[in-house]
Design a protein that fits this description.
With 304 residues, the protein is α/β, with parallel strands linked by helices. The chain has helices at residues 11-23, 26-33, 37-51, 67-88, 108-113, 115-125, 141-146, 191-196, 211-218, 235-240, 250-260, 288-301, and strands spanning 56-59, 62-65, 100-106, 129-135, 152-156, 164-179, 198-202, 224-229, 245-249, 262-264, 273-281. The protein has 12 helices and 11 strands. It is elongated and about 75 Å long.
């Protein structure tokens, strides 16, 4: 491996590399950086010559990093984070003047429940911040964070390895919903009655079991899951048009009840609850912009 003359390395080239790794698209990277597409392409060409590797291969949806680019991603990200932190020490971080893109891993739950209030706050306090919400899951979040595909993740907290730093935001719980006028809404719902209903289940992985099913098994019961969906948004509208019932996150049900013409059962049996939180990768260099954003998200979460 030949030694690279650092006098030939323009720090802006590394910023371009970081952005293309995140966006996986030359045009979108230019928009995020305030550069034209030819300017981004020229910067990538200089990097390729400097590093002796194609770095990014074009495909139908944008660009795909080479193994060499994947290997460089984490050390370059850490180096840029350290530089940003060092420069920020000369004065307090000012979110009102900062220009930054933050990538958030989450689901449509995050979009429905947290993003409206969080974006309203960002437009006032940090108008130069651009947000990229990317899909992730419990299984994928560690890899997404390590590859720097996302800066942080927001969603259900579970047992996590030491490599993650978790910040609880609020507690969420399931509620039973049905179309308005559904006979089940008029009855004091027991676990036996709940098991006898036909269910729609929101399951990101497509499995026909959820957090209720273990409790039903302990009671010697089971339910029929007629339909599964990978996200929350369509679930209330399907429930409203059928005799299916669904267990939805309470904040989702409250936001969509009027629009979808569904009702929340007032006396359902106690249902599972969980913690929604924010996850970040441990051991990374301080990043004032991401730190500020995480604090802002926590403050907004206190109000929802």
């Amino acid at each position: 491996m030949h030694e690279i003359d650092l006098r030939r390395v323009d720090l802006n080239l590394l910023v371009v590399f970081e952005t293309v790794m995140r966006e996986r698209h030359v045009g979108r990277s230019g928009e995020a950086l305030g550069l034209t597409q030819p300017a981004v392409s020229h910067a990538l060409s200089r990097l390729r010559q400097l590093l002796g590797d194609p770095l990014f291969i074009r495909h139908a949806g944008g660009v795909r990093p080479t193994p060499r680019a994947e290997a460089l991603n984490t050390p370059i990200a850490h180096a840029l984070t350290a530089v940003r932190a060092a420069l920020a020490e000369t004065g307090a971080f000012n979110p009102g003047q900062a220009v930054r893109t933050v990538s958030i891993g989450g689901s449509d739950y995050t979009d429905l429940v947290l993003m409206p209030a969080l974006m309203a706050e960002m437009r006032i306090s940090a108008p130069g911040f651009d947000i990229r919400r990317r899909p992730t899951s419990r299984e994928a979040v560690m890899g997404d964070l390590r590859r720097r595909d996302i800066d942080l993740a927001i969603g259900p907290l579970a047992a996590a390895p030491d490599a993650l730093v978790l910040t609880p935001l609020f507690t969420e719980r399931l509620v039973l919903v049905a179309r308005k006028g559904h006979p089940a809404l008029a009855a004091d719902m027991s676990l036996n009655m709940l098991a006898a209903l036909d269910h729609l289940l929101v399951s990101t992985g497509g499995d026909a079991t959820g957090s209720l099913d273990e409790r039903l098994r302990d009671a010697g019961l089971s339910r029929r899951v007629v339909m599964t969906l990978p996200n929350f948004l369509a679930a209330p509208f399907i429930v409203a048009a059928t005799d299916l019932v669904a267990l939805l996150a309470e904040r989702v049900a409250q936001r969509l009840a009027d629009a979808a013409a569904i009702a929340i059962h007032p006396q359902a049996p106690p249902l599972p609850s969980w913690t929604i939180g924010l996850a970040r990768l441990a051991g990374t260099a301080p990043d004032p912009a991401t730190d500020w954003f995480a604090d802002a998200a926590a403050k907004v979460a206190e109000r929802i």
